[in-house]
Amino acid sequence: MRRISIPPRLDWREKADAVGFHFHDMYGEPYWVDDAAYCFELEEIERQIEDPSQELHQMCMDLVGDIVRSEEALDRLAIPAPYHDVVRGSWERGDRHLYGRFDLAYDGAGPAKLLEYNADTPTSVFETAYFQFNWLTDQIALGHLAEDADQYNSLQEHLVEAFGQFSRDRIFHFAAVTDSPEDQGTSVYLMDCAIQAGHRAQFLDIREIGIDQQGRFVDLQNRVIERCFKLYPWEFMLRETYAPYLGGQGAVFVEPAWKAVLSNKGLLPMLWQRHPNHPNLLPSFFVDDPQAHELNDYVIKPLLSREGENVRLFRAGREVASASGNYGAEGHVIQAYAPLFESDAGHAVLGSWIVGDKACALGVREDRSRITANLSRYVPHVILG
Asked: When comparing pLDDT for 118 and 293, which is higher?
């Protein structure tokens, strides 16, 4: 693994705008990086990223059934008690899931380490599946990369295939908070993948979903919503005023309610307890576990944090980095610190994608801080050798 500089495509912003990638710059800061790349060898991708990701996903799936059948475990994850049955029923029905992203620490030398599993509302999917592949083909055509340069990236093909596993007998709604260009762009891209798989689809703002007199979710045309991809976290949904209706309508949503288990940082100590000393796991504990306080270099994470909010990083017991936010009331976990790949540009986190139950793609984000946050940059990758 190494970071290289490469001449940018002169028209990359126009290319981005032409395909709806309007969030290539966000809040006045660059998001997409066109003049650099992370390079890997094929064997490195297979042994250090793809194979461990496949194993980690299976380990997570094996754990879900035990968690949803335990009131104590669900309480540990701060899932509201009135909705334990919503989460449990979703798993026991076998509600189909779509995708997720492991965030991995990997410095090019040792085993990749799981930082967290973004299994409910992962973004950067369009950048990974579509725009970084276009970057690769353009850079090869421009002569900036060798003709045999490749990418670990079959994300779009797997998404279309996964959408094909859902029945096409109803409208597939897609919902997100449209105030966020990233959330809207991600959802529209996924909707296009569903259309490629033969679905009829309809997009709407998640705040436009209503409830009819029979307690069913409906769209603005008063059509009953029978299946809906929602880029909106389950921990929010279970705390909304419409949450009582989820008991009868929970099977409507993708990702399914059982993903509230996998997207929770409390999964990390549960994985460590089940698989102690696994090479791709970091020692992780709930804060009330005495073992947590034996760590010298560690990270404190809220159970439900997103985009790095309220994460605190300690070295030799001293806080060296932190991020503000609105999370933490539900509790925290403590995870051993793992060094990220570091270059003059900052620190890089690998995003390893799972679609259905298959590891299939890689995305890389970097930040000047050791805490990857909302404005961290996206850098394409390439396989050379």
From this structure: 118
Return d(Cα 184, Cα 175) in angstroms, integer.
Answer: 8
- Do the Cβ atoms of 153 and 132 come closer than 8 Å? yes
Take residue 184 and report the two structure tokens written for it: 């809207």
Say yes or no to pLDDT of 140 above 90: yes
Reply yes or no on whether the pLDDT at 313 is more than 70. Answer: yes
**Res. 116: pLDDT tops 90:** yes
For 46-82, write each residue's pLDDT tens digit. Answer: 999 999 999 999 999 999 999 999 999 999 999 999 9
Three-state SS letters, the chain: CEEEECCCCCCHHHHHHHCCCCCCEECCEECECCCEEEEECHHHHHHHHHHHHHHHHHHHHHHHHHHHCCHHHHHHCCCCHHHHHHHHHHHHHCCCCCEEEEEEECCCCCCCEEEEEECCCCCCHHHHHHHHHHHHHHHHHCCCCCCCCECCECHHHHHHHHHCCCCCCCCEEEEECCCCHHHHHHHHHHHHHHHHCCCCEEEEEHHHCEECCCCCEECCCCCECCCEEECCCHHHHCCCCCHHHHHHHHHHEECCCCHHHHCCCCHHHHHHHHCCCCCCCCCEEECCCHHHHHCCCEEEEECCCCCCCCCEEEECCEEEEECCCCCCCCCEEEEECCCCEEECCEEEEEEEEEECCEEEEEEEEEECCCCCCCCCEEECEEECC
Tell me the two tokens of residue 170. Answer: 């109803």
Q: What is the pLDDT of residue 248?
A: 81
Model confidence band, residue 374 (pLDDT cutoffs 50, 70, 90): low
CA pair distance 180, 68, nearest whole angstrom? 32
Percent share of the chain, pLDDT over 70? 99
- Alpha-carbon distance 307 to 372, whole Å? 7
Total Cβ atoms within 10 A of residue 43: 10
Q: Which two tokens stand for residue 31?
A: 């998001």
